[in-house]
Specification:
- The complex is a heterotetramer.
- By secondary structure, chain A is mainly alpha-helical.
- Chain A is built from eleven helices and four strands.
- Chain A has a domain of 230 residues.
- In chain A, helix 1 packs across helix 5 and helix 2 packs across helix 9.
- In chain A, 54% of the residues are buried.
- By secondary structure, chain B is mainly alpha-helical.
- Chain B is built from 17 helices and six strands.
- In chain B, the strands form three sheets. Chain B has a two-stranded antiparallel sheet.
- In chain D, helix 4 runs antiparallel to helix 5.
- Chain D contains 16 helices and ten strands.
- Among the domains of chain D are: 66 residues; 83 residues, Rossmann fold, CATH 3.40.50.300.
- By secondary structure, chain D is an alpha/beta fold.
- Chains in contact: A-B, A-C, B-C, B-D.
- Chains A and B meet through helix 4, helix 9 and helix 11 of A and helix 8, helix 14 and helix 16 of B.
Chain lengths: 338, 372, 399, 340
């Protein structure tokens, strides 16, 4: 492909830059070949949700080096808030076939849920984490576990311990045909939403002043404080965004699966965290990548009848990465020296 | 240094001095006195009305098992500063070790006493097995990996039904006996109570000794400042592994006792909630404070197993309109969350602060260059 | 618990509150009081299924009268963190053992708790009757033998090992040829799925796929797609509602398999209330089949429903009948012991366990075999039709 | 051994350390004469502390080697990519056996053997990992043969005879003064795990001896009577002294002091200077220090090395350094030397 005029070093550099996208494309192609289109779409959809949740872990970790154990449960609360808004406030019961109505409902649902969850995230940060900013590292970690328990129990108190149904606004019958397979629009909608949000986040971090403040704070908090960055505000915004994304994931989860339960946060939290580690904790693009990777592993296991071992495989992946490559696939933050 | 002696003999200075010098003996005497006092207390109103003395003794036995677990976890969290969220897994492994060699499921019937040691060894092996790959990493990664491990162990026990009878668990586990003298039974809780009390004081003595040893100082140093500890010649990975192995082997030993007490082990007995309840006990009692942690475990166990039940009966009996609708037992679980958050925010040193931990958590009084 | 121990205590002065609280649950041991223990997990998510069984037992005890004796009930709750806890179950059994006037116990609800309780009650020779334990190993096999030492345990629910085969027989009859099986990987779910699979294959059916997804799984789409790819014409799910049965059903519908018959055992037969299989699966629940290890055509059903409603202000459901039947059996045993002139734990136990004849209960006539299992081996089958479970037929394994 | 005794205490050859694209230390050659007090000086950001950290084993060098007392201890890590192979190697036969048992033998026999093989593989992996962590000498020799070398870690350097203090004092703040010293003595105590559990006579005696020596050390730095004070509660100057005492407790041959007089008033500085001399003279410990305070450096050092932008620009006796134009330029900026 390289013409004679292109020197080998430029080609090499080009190849170097393209290595990641190329390997991702190769992986996707392989996955599509092995899994078939139906399972491929399943995995992409699941991955989209994991990625949204993993972003919250990775952002918070990037900025204050805290594994926010409560984040999985923030996602869970998000799914309940979405359920409540959708069924109680908007009065939805099932699919909406009128397209403008559907778009409006979904937009309102996203806007409200994301706002509520962002506020909740900021509130948790303010009440539970900020007072411990200078405390030994164990303290906020333990607090986060406590917060996770409290969130679960508050939800259980209000909505009960059973599985709760959520209105599936996008009709599940809508679909397109792709090479003989039926691909529901709902799945495409979930994937698209997630991708749009992730791109928006990347733009926010790289293009805005606040985004740059977040990046410098994660690199060196004291130095950026000296350079006039308001650390408390920056950390709070990180929580706002992370929790907002978890809220969005909650909406998407409800629309896609049509149900939620108070125990949702624990399992998906663990998986999303694994995704964040796989991608390189602290790295937003990595978290997204990790989310999709985990989803492919899980769906792959299930597709070939090894669903029983799905959890164990994911966990083994986590350990293998921690041992051999603690920086993850795209990691910037390293583990402590060996 | 001899906190237990302080607690028991506060007004008697000479006695106190004696126990300070012979702390292990002091712990033993303290625990034995307490273990005699507790059943006596249950003969007095209002405690005698709640349940029979035998049931009380059984409850104390369970509480002491739980307290030993918390003390073991405290070695990992309080001493070495490592957050282990899968502690129940080691408890499970100890229990299954004994169940595997002393139940009709396998048809093997090994005696109980050597298996106590075997449980500890199995716990330690798995502690190292899990610790070796992860202890080189950041402390918070360890929390997640142990959390995952705590999930994987029950799942594996559940799925490996050829070896563990799956979800049914292994039942009919042999009860301990001293041949020719004493056969433990399920309806007489006293022998088990005695065994647990003895083990409890033994473990407490061992932990106090470790705390004051060269190894204990090493853990303190790591918890305070890893880089400085390395620069004092401490191999931090090995020291952490030791803490991990000690904690795990205590859980393994306690697991054996627990299996012999309940006579059944099932994967569901060792879920995340067990790890969290032990963590709550550690946080409540004060990280690093052995006796505080043991007390914290007692408080949490008795609170959720006895008090909440009584609260239910109480509000039903006196017919308070709103409270009547609330089932207080529903709050067993949220209790852990509240304990963890409130203690960390308001009283991180625990209700019974350890000397060292209290100071580490206290705000800095002297700045870096305050003396200048 | 709400009916019990409420009488006349409301006027207690504040000083006496603590004493009352503690003394409240203990019956006075004066003279001729006999207490029947009730041991269930009664908070968190466990309450929904075990609550009716408790209420049934309480109702029977309240109704009963034995001349010269006062019958009382004592309820202990062994749920912790919202689920049954075997350790606490054993501790509660020890409490019953330690209370001399307790002559028999209704419970427990879950098989794991039973395995922890039976060794204790067996040592004390205290009769236990479970309304809902269905795990075969409690009475059969090596474990069963170890547990059965005291011959003090009976149950009115028939065992799981019959449910799976019964559903298999029915599914075969209903036209299933190629089945896809999913289980919840736990003892109940995997056990019932194994039994189903064995019978289905033995009867000439084909299993086109089998796997397990543990409790807590939310994404069943891959399994649904796998079922579709395997060309299944029917689905079997081994597990309970909260393991994800309705989620799997919804995922199947989303994958375009909503019309296939969906079979399950009693784990998904849980009425229509909030959180039930039908409530969650909604319209997708149609054409689902479930079984129950109990008789559907309960002889005294209408009568019982009226009494139950009058007492508790809600409809009888689930295990209320079995709980009532257990208490009835125990009360009959006590009556027999009274007739024999000596009421002790041993005479009550012997009157129930060693009696060859049948007991007349709300479930009909019930007797026990040599290991304490009910001889009323009826599996009832149900189908979701119009948003509710409708009885379709029963298979009687009794002889 | 005897040959080593005659050479320099520490010899650094071509030490380079890069952080990403930034070269913090660039090919520095450096020697510390036995029994001397040497100093490294240089303007802010000259790479002094980085160089210190390389010597102490905290940062691995990008290039170059360091010998302490004639023993080569630090060199750039090589063959890191080959290390995972070492971890996996012992598991391969067992994994093979497991696959064979589970897939080929199958059935109940195969399952039991398969599970046992998986367990053995796991144990093998952890054993390899443990070796990798503990790194006994024979293991180091073994991996060297396949081209894997790792630089000594800080604790290895302490064992080899090096001790250090930190620029921003790092004490164990919630331990007492005495306990701080006892941790410093760690490498020379041998109380085992079981010894501690059973409180053997050996352990008790060792503890008593150690405590005695710790008190002497405290007396040496003039902290007598403060044995049970918490380190956190000591005034700043005394915290410095305690940190030095903790470093000496490991009986080093070479002591690295990172700005020992920072933040001290003239009187304290003078006391510190005297202490450093006493450490060299009475305890026979070679000393290397980084210091900003020129009066301290000039007054105490036998030998001075000047770093600027990560490179060595001068070395020699204090007198020579003081008048070296390159040094003046580095400190005062270009042109200052000429204009002087």
């Amino acid at each position: 492909m390289a013409t004679a005029s292109v020197t080998s070093s430029t080609a090499g550099r080009l190849l170097g830059n393209l290595r990641l996208p190329l390997s991702i494309l190769a992986f996707l192609g392989l996955a599509l070949g092995v899994l078939g289109i139906d399972q491929f779409v399943n995995a992409m959809t699941l991955g989209a949700i994991y990625a949204l949740v993993a972003l919250g872990y990775t952002m918070v970790y990037g900025i204050i080096e805290l594994i926010n154990f409560a984040h999985g449960d923030v996602f869970m609360v998000g799914s309940f808030v979405a359920m409540f808004i959708s069924s109680s406030l908007l009065g939805n019961e099932g699919a909406i076939t009128n397209v403008p109505m559907l778009a409006a409902s979904v937009l309102i649902l996203f806007a409200l849920t994301i706002s509520v969850m962002a506020l909740l995230g900021a509130l948790i940060e303010r009440l539970a984490y900020r007072p411990l900013r200078r405390a030994p590292k164990l303290a906020p970690l333990i607090t986060a576990i406590g917060v996770s328990f409290i969130l679960q129990n508050v939800i259980q108190f209000f909505f009960g311990p059973t599985i709760v149904t959520v209105p599936q606004l996008v009709p599940i019958e809508w679909s397109i045909q792709v090479s003989g397979s039926r691909v529901p629009l709902l799945n495409l909608f979930v994937i698209a939403t997630s991708v749009i949000l992730m791109v928006a986040l990347q733009l926010f971090i790289s293009r805005t002043r606040t985004g740059r403040a977040m990046r410098t704070t994660s690199m060196d908090r004291d130095a950026s404080s000296l350079m006039g960055v308001d650390i408390n505000r920056t950390i709070m915004i990180t929580f706002l965004i992370g929790s907002g994304l978890a809220g969005a994931a909650g909406v998407v989860h409800g629309l896609y699966y049509g149900n939620t339960t108070f125990g949702l946060g624990f399992q998906s939290g663990l998986k999303a965290f694994t995704a964040a580690v796989l991608g390189g904790i602290g790295n937003t693009a990595g978290a997204a990548l990790g989310g999709f990777l985990i989803a492919f592993v899980e769906v792959g296991a299930s597709a070939f009848g090894y669903g029983r071992w799905g959890g164990a495989i994911v966990f083994s992946l986590l350990v293998i990465f921690l041992v051999f490559r603690p920086t993850g696939l795209l990691g910037s933050h390293t583990g402590d020296r060996a | 240094m001899s906190r237990i002696a302080d607690a028991v003999n506060a007004p008697f200075a000479p006695v106190r001095a004696f126990f300070r010098k012979h702390r292990s003996f002091g712990i033993f005497v303290g625990v034995v006195l307490l273990s005699i006092a507790l059943p006596l207390l249950t003969r007095v109103p209002p405690f005698d009305g709640i349940q029979s003395t035998n049931a009380w003794v059984n409850a104390f036995t369970t509480a002491a098992i739980y307290a030993m677990l918390a003390m073991g976890l405290n070695v990992v969290i309080g001493f070495a500063g490592l957050l282990d969220l899968g502690y129940a897994a080691f408890f499970a492994l100890g229990g299954y070790t004994y169940a595997f060699v002393a139940a009709p499921f396998t048809g093997i019937h090994l005696p109980f006493w050597p298996m106590l040691l075997a449980g500890g060894v199995v716990g330690a092996i798995f502690g190292v097995l899990l610790g070796a790959p992860t202890l080189r990493l950041r402390g918070d990664y360890l929390a997640i990996v142990t959390l995952g491990f705590g999930e994987i162990v029950p799942i594996t026990l559940m799925n490996a039904d050829k070896f563990t009878d799956g979800v049914n668990g292994i039942g009919g586990i042999d009860k301990p006996s001293i041949p020719g003298i004493l056969q433990f039974t399920l309806t007489n809780p006293w022998p088990m109570y005695g065994l647990v009390i003895a083990l409890f004081s033994l473990i407490m003595i061992m932990i106090y000794r470790l705390e004051d040893s060269r190894l204990g100082r090493t853990w303190d140093a790591i918890r305070e400042d890893e880089l400085a500890a390395e620069s004092s010649g401490v191999n931090i990975v090995i020291a952490k592994l030791q803490a991990f192995a000690v904690g795990a082997s205590i859980a393994g030993i306690v697991g054996v006792v627990n299996a012999a007490k309940i006579t059944i082990v099932t994967p569901d007995q060792f879920r995340f909630a067990v790890s969290i309840s032990a963590l709550a006990a550690v946080v409540l009692g004060g990280m690093g404070n052995t006796i505080g942690v043991a007390t914290g475990a007692f408080i949490i166990y008795l609170f959720q197993s006895i008090l909440l039940k009584q609260l239910n009966t109480l509000v039903e009996n006196i017919n308070i309109p709103v409270l009547n609708q609330i089932d207080f037992l529903d709050f067993q679980y949220v209790l852990y969350g509240i304990v963890l958050v409130l203690m960390m925010l308001k009283r991180p040193q625990g209700i019974f602060p350890a000397r060292r931990r209290m100071r580490e958590f206290a705000p800095l009084k002297i700045g870096k260059r305050g003396a200048k | 618990m709400k009916v019990f121990n409420k009488k006349g205590l409301s006027a207690l002065a504040a000083v006496a509150i603590l004493a009352a609280a503690c003394g409240g649950s203990t019956a006075s041991t004066a003279g001729k009081t006999l207490t029947i223990g009730i041991s269930f997990p009664l908070n968190g998510s466990a309450l929904a299924s075990a609550g009716p069984a408790r209420d049934g037992a309480l109702l029977a005890i309240k109704e009963a009268s034995i001349e010269g004796y006062t019958l009382k009930a004592k309820v202990l709750d062994h749920a912790k963190e919202g689920a049954h806890n075997p350790d606490q179950a054993a501790a509660d059994m020890l409490t019953f053992v330690g209370q001399e006037d307790v002559v028999a116990v209704v419970g427990p609800f879950n098989s794991a708790s039973a395995r922890a309780q039976i060794p204790v009650s067996s040592e004390a020779g205290l009769l236990q009757c479970s309304p809902s334990n269905t795990n075969p190993t409690l009475t059969k096999g090596a474990d069963g033998e170890a547990l059965r030492g005291g011959r003090n345990y009976v149950r009115v629910a028939t065992t799981d090992d019959l449910q799976g085969p019964a559903v298999a027989v029915y599914a075969k009859k209903n036209g299933a040829a190629k089945i896809y099986i999913l289980d919840s990987t736990d003892a109940y779910g995997k056990g019932v799925a194994d039994a189903f699979e064995a019978k289905f294959i033995a009867d000439g059916g084909t299993v086109v796929g089998r796997q397990g997804l543990p409790t807590g799984t939310t994404d069943f789409s891959a399994a649904a797609t796998a079922a579709k790819a395997a060309g299944a014409d029917s689905i079997f799910y081994g597990g309970v509602t909260s393991d994800g049965a309705p989620l799997f059903r919804n995922a199947l519908a989303q994958a375009g398999l909503g019309a296939l018959p969906f079979y399950g055992a009693d784990g998904i037969y849980d009425g229509t209330s909030e959180g039930s299989y039908i409530a969650i699966a909604g319209a997708n629940a149609e054409n689902s089949y479930a079984s129950q290890a109990a008789i559907e055509n309960i002889p005294g059903k209408a009568d019982f429903n009226v009494k139950f409603k009058a007492e508790f202000g809600k409809d009888a459901e689930g295990y209320a009948y079995a709980g009532y039947a257990c208490a009835q059996i125990i009360i009959e045993g006590i009556a027999a012991a009274v007739a024999g002139g000596d009421v002790t734990r041993e005479t009550v136990r012997a009157a129930v366990v060693d009696k060859g004849a049948a007991f007349e209960t709300v479930l009909g006539s019930v007797s026990f075999d040599a290991v304490g299992d009910t001889t009323q081996r009826i599996i009832s089958l149900y189908k979701v039709d119009g948003g509710a479970w409708k009885f379709v037929e029963e298979i009687n394994y009794g002889n | 051994m005897s040959a080593a005794k005659s050479g320099p205490m520490l010899r650094a050859r071509g030490v380079t350390r890069k952080f990403g694209g930034l070269i913090a230390v660039n090919s520095v050659d450096f020697e510390i004469p036995r029994g001397s007090i040497s100093a490294i000086i240089g303007p802010n950001g000259a790479g002094k502390t980085t160089f210190f950290n390389v010597i102490a084993g905290i940062y691995a060098p990008t290039a170059g080697t360091i010998e302490l007392d004639g023993k080569p201890l630090i060199s750039p890590p090589t063959g890191a990519g080959r290390e995972p192979i070492l971890l996996i190697l012992p598991t391969i036969p067992f994994i093979g056996l497991a696959i064979y048992s589970l897939l080929v033998v199958g059935g109940d026999t195969g399952l039991v053997e398969g599970v046992a093989s998986v367990a053995a593989a796991l144990l093998g992996f952890v054993a390899a990992l443990l070796l990798n962590i503990v790194r006994p000498t024979w293991y180091n020799r073994l991996i060297k043969r396949i081209g894997v070398t790792r630089p000594a870690r800080p604790n290895d350097m302490v064992v080899a005879g090096l001790a250090r203090t930190f620029q921003n004092i790092r004490l164990y703040k919630s331990l007492t003064t005495l306990e701080n010293i006892l941790v410093g003595m760690h490498v020379h105590m041998h109380g085992s795990f079981l010894g501690a559990l059973f409180k053997t006579r050996l352990v008790r005696e060792e503890e008593a001896v150690a405590e005695q020596r710790a008190r002497e050390l405290l007396a040496f730095v003039d902290l007598s009577g403060m044995e049970n004070e918490l380190a956190r509660n000591l005034p700043y100057g005394k915290q410095r002294l305690l940190e030095i005492a903790r470093a000496i407790a490991s009986r080093p041959k070479l002591l690295l002091l990172d700005e020992p007089a920072a933040g001290m008033n003239p009187k304290e500085t003078e006391e510190m200077t005297a202490l450093i001399r006493r450490i060299r003279d009475e305890l026979d410990i070679t000393i290397l220090l980084i210091e900003h305070d020129m009066r301290v450096v000039m007054g105490i050092s036998d030998h001075i090395t000047v770093l600027d932008h990560g490179e060595k620009i001068a070395e020699g006796l204090p007198k020579a350094i003081r008048t070296n134009p390159k040094v003046i330029e580095a400190y005062l900026g270009r042109g200052a030397a000429a204009g002087h």
